[in-house]
Design brief:
Helices cover 52% and strands 8% of the residues. It is an alpha/beta fold. α11 packs across α15 and α17 runs antiparallel to α21.
Length: 461
């Protein structure tokens, strides 16, 4: 009979592992909001961390809680997921085990502020004064999220805005921005706040990395609030929506042509109006309200869009939203329409045209958009009459004008946000768009097309 003796340390390790497995997870992540992005974030938690963490899903809508239970199982069937309809229902033991909190509710400033304040108070009551709260805020900067918090809590909050649809990239922003050499001259109190904010940002970035999310640090705290609204790429996306909704309201363009131009330039799955349908018109209205409230745009969402939302309508009928598949690309082409002269006049009135716009457009279409090399859902397909996307761009003056205006809006805001205010570096902005669209250095290449004076001084909308 053979036997062997385990060293004492090995016996202790085995006992610890057995105890840990019986006791359950000792680390908890609280997910506040189980909407579209909340589902993506929760999936990443389970995919990357598995049973290593306990996940507490909090959502005030019973429908979403039911969706979470259907996806992850009832609490009696597993020990990883628990569900609450209010953060007050989270157990003290769960707060005590919490290592990270991600907020993912709709873009409502006041609801986010109240939720973050309440959660931080719960953490403090549980003695967890080092846990950070990350907010999936596409437009609201951390200076606004923390406006009514006591000073000692403000540096524990971070923007952690995950881009749809896959959540592979996130903007991270905290108070005071990244520490620089000039910060060595600040007071001891200010230096402590800088260090606390930097610790919060790095905590969020490390947690993102565990989930396979690449973080992009924002540097916008020192700017006016109106220039912090929308962060980096979302500022460009907002301006595109703002202008094309304006054009649609003035009957200068239809939604199909606008969406086709966006798909062609940005290589995204959906166009402008298709994306607003996806996120819901009410969310788009809320985001615009945030921009108006803090001076980042001059008007609320136009009445015709608010009326549509009030009636439960969308830009496209349900289940017919066109994406960038071959069939839908050519369906958009067949139904596209615009007022050519009206678009040209709109471009000049809004500072979106340059004196040599036709030659810039030719280079953009034939070179910078890389249409021949992009994935086959967008370029290279043959339409029923024998033409492809490049052919249509060369013969359709309406489509060419829409593409040029979209690029002009892009560069106008890019120069304001990236080149003038340095919210993010040009290299990081290019890399972010590469993750989102698969295009290499698109912003830098488009920026070189337009005259140096284009978009300056700032055009107010």
């Amino acid at each position: 009979m053979f036997y062997f003796r385990l060293p004492k340390t090995s016996v202790l390790i085995c006992i610890f592992v057995l105890f840990y497995s019986l006791a359950g997870n000792s680390e908890t992540v609280v997910v506040l909001g189980y909407g579209r992005t909340g589902k993506v974030f929760t999936h990443k938690l389970h995919q990357k961390l598995g049973d290593d963490v306990k996940v507490v899903i909090v959502d005030t809508e019973p429908k979403r809680i039911n969706e979470a239970v259907a996806r992850w199982g009832a609490e009696s069937d597993q020990h990883t997921f628990t569900y609450r309809t209010h953060y007050d229902q989270v157990l003290e033991s769960e707060w005590a085990d919490t290592i990270f909190i991600q907020e993912l509710i709709n873009e409502n400033v006041w609801k986010k502020q109240a939720l973050i304040e309440g959660v931080l108070d719960k953490l403090e009551s549980a003695g967890k004064t080092d846990v950070v709260v990350a907010s999936n805020s596409s437009s609201i900067p951390v200076s606004v999220l923390t406006e009514y918090l006591p000073e000692h809590q403000k540096t524990r909050v971070s923007v952690n805005h995950m881009y749809s649809p896959h959540g592979a990239a996130s903007e991270v922003g905290v108070l005071y921005g990244p520490i620089t050499e000039s910060d060595s001259q600040v007071s001891a109190d200010q230096s402590e706040k800088l260090l606390q904010a930097e610790t919060t940002a790095r905590t969020v970035e490390r947690f993102n990395a565990r989930l396979g999310i690449e973080s992009f640090r924002l540097n916008n705290h020192g700017l006016e609030i109106k220039d912090q609204i929308g962060h980096s790429f979302n500022r460009i996306w907002f301006r595109i929506k703002e202008h094309f909704i304006d054009m649609l309201g003035k009957n200068l363009i239809n939604r199909q042509l606008a969406d086709l131009a966006f798909i062609i330039v940005y290589n995204r799955p959906l166009g402008i109006f298709g994306t607003m349908d996806m996120i819901s018109l009410n969310t788009a209205i809320d985001i615009r309200h945030v921009w108006k409230t803090y001076g980042a745009c001059s008007s609320e969402m136009p009445l015709f869009v608010r009326d549509m939302a009030g009636k439960g309508e969308t830009f496209y009928p349900p289940c017919t939203r066109p994406d960038c598949t071959q069939k839908n690309i050519f369906r958009l082409l067949e139904t596209s329409a615009a007022n050519q002269e009206g678009l040209l006049e709109y471009g000049w009135q809004n500072g979106l045209m340059s004196p040599h716009w036709e030659s810039e457009l030719n280079r953009m279409v034939n070179k910078e958009l890389n249409l021949e090399e992009r994935y086959p859902e967008v370029a290279g397909h043959t339409a029923p009459d024998g033409g492809d996307i490049i052919h249509y761009l060369n013969v359709s003056s309406q489509l060419r004008m829409a593409v040029y205006l979209l690029a002009g809006i892009t560069i106008q805001e890019y120069r304001h946000t990236v080149l003038r205010n340095s919210v993010i570096s040009p290299e990081s902005m290019d890399h972010l768009l590469n993750i989102l669209t698969g295009q290499d250095r698109l912003f830098s290449r488009l920026n070189q097309l337009f005259p140096v004076s284009f978009g300056l001084p700032e055009v107010t909308h």
